[in-house]
Structure formats: C-alpha cells, structure tokens
C-alpha cells in the first residue's frame, strides 16, 4: 500500500539479496504472496516475480539483482563498491567514511528480542529507520542519482543501464548515433567470428624500472588522454581503415577484424597520397578523405569536457549546477578513456578489430619511445628515463635542485608536445623528491606539484600502503617508515621506530582492528575442492551458524590469525574478529603477522637500501614463554595453545619470574594493595568513559553493539578484560592480606 500510495521510481536497499527487499520478497513467497507483482507498476505482467537481472558482460564478482518491473531497484552496497575505496563495505563502515558519523550494529537475535518486548520494540524500529535514512543520505552525499542521470543523458542509455551495463555498451550507444548520421551500420560478429580473429601483436610500453631509492629529483610526465589523442591525430577508426599492407595489391577479399574487406587496386592508386600507415603495418585514409567516426566522437567529447570544466570555474557559487556539470565532465572523461578498450575486447567484445587496436597501441608506444629518446638525447637536460608506463615517463635529474627539476620538466613537456600532431600533448605532472621505485606499477615518493610547494604530498601507487589485500597494520607501519626514510634520508630513525612497534606487538599493546584481513569472497562454489582459503573458512562457519549469514559474492570477509598449538594448520588459526573479542584467551599470532605480512612488505623497500626488517625483529628480546588460553582446532576437541605471553607484575609492572606479584611487591603488601586499587580505579574510569561514548551513539545504556568497524568496540573489549583482571588481582591480594593478618594474630 505504501509503494502504491507514493508510487516511487526508485526502490533502495543497502543489500537487497539476503536482507531488505530481497528478504521481503522471500518472506512473501513463503506466505504465498506475490509481493513483487504488488510492488510492480506492471501487475499484470506474465513474467515471474521476482526476476533477476545479471550483467550481460559477465561480471563474475557481482551477484544478480532483484528486478521489480516498472521501478528501479538499487543495491546500494554494489554502488558503494564503485564510489568509495574501503577495506570493508559494511553499512556502518561506508556510512562513517561518507557521512562521518558512527551507527551501531545489533545482532538479529537482539533485534528480535527487542521487537518481542513491549517496552523495547522502539529500539528495533529506530534501528531500521536510522539505516533507511542512512541509505538516502549516502545517495545524497555521493550524488548517485544526479551523476547517474547525467551519465544516462550523455551516453544516451537508460538510468539503470549506467549501473548495470559495461563500458562497451556506453561507447556503442554514442558511436552508433554518429554512424547513423553517415549512413553506416555496425558489424554484428558471431562468437565463432570473434574466435577466428587473429591475436593482437602489440602491447603498451612498460619499462622495467631501475629499482632504487632516489634522492635526486624525479620528474613525472604524462601524455593527456594518449589513446584518444592518437585516434584523433591519426584518424584511426573502423571507417577509415584499409587493412594491412600485406594484403594490398591482390584486389581479393582478405581477413579484417572479425569479418573481411576488399580494397580495389584502382582505389588504392587514387588514395596513394592520402594514406598513413601505423607502426603495426595497417593503412588508414587521412581525415581530408574521410573523417573517422571514432575520432570525431572523441574530439567532440574532449572539447565538450573542456567547455564543461570551464563552466564549472564560472559557477562556483551555484552548488547544484556545479554538481550537474561535474557529473557531466566525469561521464565524458570515462567514455573517452574506454573507447580504445571497445576496439580491443577480443574475447567478449561487441565489435573488436585487431587491426585498429594494434594500430592505436603501436602508435602510442612509438610516441612514448620517441619522447624517451628525445629526453636522453638532449644533454642540457641531463635527464635519464628510469621508468615508463603506457603514457607516462619518470625522468631522473641527477644532482638537480627541485626548482631546476620543475624548469626542465616544463621544457621537456613543451619540446615533446611540439614533436607530435595535435591534440597529443605531454603534460608535466609533478616532481618526486625523494622516491622509491620497486617494480612495474609500484612506486612511492614525496611529490611536489609546483615550485612554491613547501610541504610535500605522500604519493604511493601499487604498494601496500594503498592496496587492500593486507591488514591496516602493514599499511600504517610501511607508510610511517617511508615518511621517516624520506624525511631523514637515513635508516636509523626507521630502525628505531620499527623495533619499538615490534616490541609493542610482542607485548600485545596493539589494536586488534589494525590486524584484520579482509578478502573478497568468491562464493561457496567459487573455490576448488579442498581449498584452504580464510574467507571461505569463515564463510562456512557463518553458514553453519545461520544460512542467511552467507557473504555475498564480492563481499569482503574479515578475519584475524591467532596463536595455536603446534601441529595446527594455518587455516585452523583463522578467526572472525568477534570470536577473538568474545574469548580473551585467543591472542594475535604476532609471529605470523611480522614474518608473513609486515616484514616482507617492509623488506621490499628496505632491501633497496641493504636493510632487513626481519633481522631487526630477530634482535628483539622475547617475552617469557607461558601457557594460556584455549585454541579450538576445526572439528576437534579443545587444545591448550602455547604462545608468547608477557609476565609482568600486576602492581608495579616490572618483569616477574612467575605469574603474580613480583618479590618486591610481595615484600610490601601495603604498596601492592594501593597500586592494585589505583589500577582498578583507573581501568573502571576508562571503561565508564567508553560506555558513555557507546551510550551517546546508541541512545541508551547497553553493550549490544557488535559493529566490528568501530574502534570503540575493540577498546571496550580490551578495557573490560583489563578491568576483570585488575579486580581479580585486587581481590586475590586482599584475600592473601586477610589470611596473613589472621595468621599473624
């Protein structure tokens, strides 16, 4: 009734398969109610409801979406995966990073108990109202509807197709409109025709970098929209291609892309003076004979984008118009960047053409190679190209100052741009000082974008500080180490910092949240039989607990690695963060994290300066070996796990030869009682402060929140455990004192 009353165009849910609209439709089917038909604007449709729509281009990472005919159904979780870059895409984490406010999370059991209770029912209702409003707030903050609408207008496709279809669909939508004006029809090759097409022969130029720590300036130069510019400058298109030179002269039909082409000898003689040949040996007519469809489309797109960006500068006060214009320029940028991919998609492409794709890549490669030769042949610059990747190059200016680097970089850009036809343009991007080149597509440095910039920007590409396949501790330790290395220019501060952090890890003075891995789940059937994958193991445990807890395909599953008894496989040491929080005996496997995650990442950088972080870790004194906690083997009985625990006196904090008070505190029971009482007071005060924070977030006193994305949850678990320990030691000491006093009398 609500849907029919308001008649919405869009139905939104954060995750619409296992909850939200999907759960509602599933419950309806259990009660034999066709809710999808009731929600639909086409209630008499003969199609079955609910219907699922998959991505025609086969995006295996995503599941399928529920479709309600006549209305757009948005799965907000999927949209957020493209809009923001995070380790975990739970509603709570996304909402915090977009809106900058925390929201609580409760288990279904707690929500059910509240809903069944007369006085607590409002809590469940409020929980879902907050999430429903949060979905709308996410849409508004990221302007999802506005951006999608503008892209739909630009591409000439439907609103939902912007979200569900791939880049080829967008390119073809724009290309066919131009082709139709010229009376041209696009080819529709079959799967067999695509399979018979010859393989591509050219790849972009990606140089092997000279891996090193560079303390001299490194200028970074980048060709603006290289492939679109090449297509415009040299008139590369399906409609202007005459085929390979090997086939000229015979006059017979020859293989061309997925089809065939015949070029009469008489026509070649007429066009002899108007043909350009790509480095791939493919001939194209010049624009004076025929302007290609793709070059015309790309030129209009790039010119329009420049006009839109200029309009944005002139309407700084009109935020609504600025949002619309920003969405338009973004859509134009995206379509220009993926046009080459349309010609090269030989496996799943709609209309691939290997001759055209090879020509674009080979010309781009030739352009970059010519720029590199120009730099190294000009002695007055004193530059050496240490890395090049597709459309960019890194020029080492040995012994130059930052100001000289900017001057030389600008001069290089002007000279190389003048060598190439318009609109090919080399842009001077920035100067790295200093920087580290690891391998292909992996580098990091302090970047400056203008000579007047005094504070550098930390800029990393491809290394662990920006990758999401490791835990936050690796990223934080590596970034801090790099900053120290770049700022000091020597290894000593890095060594001191890392040894301090390793010591904290060994003494367990760390935040559990920093050691959570989050890997994408490929589905229960997406792994080989017997695969030992942590995300799969955690997912199986969740399904055994509740089938509806199965993660979606593409969802990031969090886990940590704990200590276990000798003989247990690593997969048996994997735990969900909530398991570790609820069981204080489970402790982080520090040795695993240092030797398998943190150490290798650090050594990929430190190895370039002849240092070894794992050697520094090995030099540290180890805490005494103790026995504590229960680690459960998978499917087996409980086993006692031995791992490193630090034996400190609970009163004074000094090293103790055994568990309990140290000899000096035992000799002075009055001091021990005072110290333990003070410890209890401090821990309880800290726990009270944390509970106040939770109360301000939840709106009531309680400890039901289980949001693993909130750092307060981990602080609360740690302080609660410390409070129990402090009270236990205080009570034990008080009892011992009472006994001693009684025996004395």
Note down, in words, how this protein is organized.
- By secondary structure, this protein is an alpha+beta fold.
- The protein is 48% helix and 14% strand.
- Strands 5, 6, 12, 13, 14, 15 and 16 form a seven-stranded antiparallel β-sheet that branches. A three-stranded antiparallel β-sheet has the order 7-11-10, covered by helices on one side.
- It is globular.
Brief summary:
It comes from Ixodes scapularis. With 745 residues, the protein is an alpha+beta fold. The protein is built from 27 helices and 21 strands.
Reconstruct the topology from this structure.
Elements: H1 2-6, E1 10-13, H2 20-30, H3 35-39, E2 51-53, E3 65-67, E4 72-75, H4 76-83, H5 91-99, H6 108-116, H7 121-141, H8 144-155, H9 159-164, H10 167-181, H11 191-196, E5 212-214, E6 218-223, H12 226-234, E7 241-244, E8 254-256, E9 259-261, H13 265-270, E10 275-277, E11 282-285, H14 293-314, H15 319-337, H16 339-344, H17 354-377, E12 383-389, E13 392-397, H18 402-419, E14 426-439, E15 442-448, E16 457-461, H19 472-488, H20 492-506, E17 517-520, H21 534-545, E18 556-561, E19 574-575, H22 577-582, H23 590-606, H24 613-619, E20 625-632, E21 638-644, H25 663-667, H26 669-698, H27 711-744
Parallel strand pairs: 1-4
Antiparallel strand pairs: 2-3, 5-14, 6-13, 6-14, 7-11, 8-9, 10-11, 12-13, 14-15, 15-16, 17-18, 18-19, 20-21
Helix pairs in contact: 5-7, 6-7, 8-15, 12-14, 12-17, 14-15, 19-20, 19-23, 26-27
């Amino acid at each position: 009734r609500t849907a029919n009353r308001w008649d919405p165009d869009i139905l939104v849910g954060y995750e619409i398969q296992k909850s939200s609209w999907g759960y509602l439709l599933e419950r309806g089917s259990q009660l034999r109610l066709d809710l999808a038909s009731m929600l639909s604007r086409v209630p008499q449709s003969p199609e079955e409801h609910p219907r699922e729509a998959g991505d025609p281009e086969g995006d295996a990472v995503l599941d399928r979406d529920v479709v309600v005919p006549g209305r757009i159904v948005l799965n907000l979780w999927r949209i957020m995966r493209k809009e923001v870059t995070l380790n975990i895409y739970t509603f709570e984490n996304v909402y915090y990073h977009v809106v900058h406010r925390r929201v609580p999370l409760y288990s279904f059991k707690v929500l059910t108990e509240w809903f069944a209770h007369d006085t607590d029912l409002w809590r469940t209702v409020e929980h879902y109202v907050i999430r429903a409003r949060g979905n709308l707030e996410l849409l508004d903050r990221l302007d999802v509807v506005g951006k999608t609408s503008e892209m739909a207008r630009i591409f000439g496709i439907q609103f939902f197709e912007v979200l569900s279809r791939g880049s080829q669909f967008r390119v073809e939508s724009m290309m066919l409109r131009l082709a139709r004006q010229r009376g041209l029809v696009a080819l529709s090759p079959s799967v067999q025709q695509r399979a018979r097409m010859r393989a591509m022969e050219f790849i972009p130029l990606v140089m092997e970098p000279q891996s090193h720590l560079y303390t001299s300036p490194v200028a970074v130069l980048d060709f603006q929209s290289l492939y679109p510019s090449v297509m415009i400058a040299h008139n590369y298109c399906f409609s202007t291609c005459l085929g390979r030179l090997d086939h000229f002269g015979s006059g017979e039909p020859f293989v061309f892309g997925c089809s065939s082409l015949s070029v009469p000898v008489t026509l070649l003689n007429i066009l002899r003076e108007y043909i350009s040949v790509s480095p791939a040996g493919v001939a194209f007519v010049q624009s004076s004979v025929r302007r290609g469809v793709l070059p015309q489309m790309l030129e209009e797109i790039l010119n329009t984008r420049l006009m839109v960006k200029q309009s944005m500068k002139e309407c700084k006060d009109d935020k609504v118009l600025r949002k619309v214009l920003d969405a338009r320029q973004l859509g134009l940028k995206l379509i220009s960047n993926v046009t080459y991919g349309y010609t090269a998609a030989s496996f799943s492409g709609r209309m691939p053409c290997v001759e055209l794709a090879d020509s674009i890549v080979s010309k781009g490669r030739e352009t970059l190679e010519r720029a590199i030769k120009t730099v190294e042949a000009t002695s007055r610059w004193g530059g050496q190209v240490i890395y090049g990747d597709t459309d960019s190059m890194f020029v080492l200016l040995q012994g130059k100052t930052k100001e000289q680097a900017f001057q030389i970089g600008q001069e290089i850009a002007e000279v190389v741009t003048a060598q190439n036809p318009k609109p090919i343009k080399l842009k001077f991007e920035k100067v790295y000082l200093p920087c580290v080149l690891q391998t292909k597509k992996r580098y990091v440095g302090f970047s400056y974008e203008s000579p007047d910039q005094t504070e550098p920007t930390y800029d990393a590409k491809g290394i662990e500080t920006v990758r999401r396949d490791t835990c936050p501790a690796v990223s934080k330790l590596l970034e801090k180490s790099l900053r120290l290395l770049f700022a000091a220019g020597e290894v000593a501060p890095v060594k001191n910092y890392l040894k301090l952090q390793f010591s904290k890890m060994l003494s367990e003075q760390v935040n559990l949240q920093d050691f959570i891995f989050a890997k994408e789940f490929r589905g229960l059937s997406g792994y080989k039989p017997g695969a030992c994958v942590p995300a799969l193991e955690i997912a199986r445990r969740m399904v055994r607990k509740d089938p509806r807890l199965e993660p979606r395909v593409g969802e990031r599953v969090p886990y940590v690695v704990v200590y276990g008894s000798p003989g247990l496989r690593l997969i048996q040491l994997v735990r969900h963060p909530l398991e570790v929080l609820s069981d204080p005996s489970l402790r982080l496997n520090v040795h695993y994290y240092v030797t398998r995650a943190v150490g290798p990442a650090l050594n990929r950088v430190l190895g370039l300066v002849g240092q070894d972080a794992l050697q520094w870790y090995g030099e540290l004194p180890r805490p005494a070996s103790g026995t504590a906690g229960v680690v459960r083997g998978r499917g087996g009985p409980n086993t006692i796990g031995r791992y490193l625990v630090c034996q400190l006196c609970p009163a004074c904090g000094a090293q103790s030869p055994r568990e309990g008070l140290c000899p000096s505190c035992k000799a002075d029971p009055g001091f021990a009682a005072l110290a333990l009482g003070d410890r209890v007071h401090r821990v309880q005060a800290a726990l009270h402060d944390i509970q106040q924070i939770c109360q301000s977030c939840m709106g009531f006193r309680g400890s039901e929140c289980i949001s693993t994305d909130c750092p307060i949850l981990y602080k609360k678990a740690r302080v609660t455990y410390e409070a129990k320990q402090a009270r236990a030691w205080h009570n034990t000491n008080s009892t011992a004192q009472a006994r001693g006093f009684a025996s004395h009398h």
